[in-house]
Amino acid sequence: MGTQNILWNYSKKLFTFGLIGLTVSDRYASVAAVRGASMSPTFNPPSVAFMDDYVLVEKTCLMNYKFSHGDVVIFSSPINHKERHIKRIIALPGDWIGIRHSSDVLRIPEGHCWVEGDNPSSSLDSNSFGPVPLGLVKGRVTNIVWPPQRIGPVERKVPEARISSH
After folding, report:
1. Does 38 qualify as catalytic in the annotation?
2. Is 82 labeled as catalytic in the residue annotation?
3. Which of 44, 50, 90, 135 is most open to solvent, judged by the fewest CB atoms within 10 Å of its CB?
């Protein structure tokens, strides 16, 4: 009888902590691995060749879709919903963006953003699939949390010459 009671209490605590953890990770923050070189040197710089960066993804920005130019976000791919990408927001709804390697200029439609990797030679981004619906954004990357020598905040950077708000 005692062992069964201990197991039941342990199971209840484990279930409770699991629900709390799931809620926090779904609504407030989570940790994600950054794979590949598309965001180098911000993430996975060549000097740390065999170790992926892990980042803190805050999700409270999703309540009002409050994003700024230069924010790094994680989003579901518009081409394959099972893939997640981490890129930098270059333009927001209503902005005009000069397309990289082209003389074309595009206005970002309402409810969309333009995202690009920091390493253009190795990035599958809006230059490939166009503006990304804000509904596909899963959170904003705020800090690098692993490896220990790279722990710190993520900088906002924007290539100013390519966007116009008029």
Report:
1. yes
2. no
3. 50
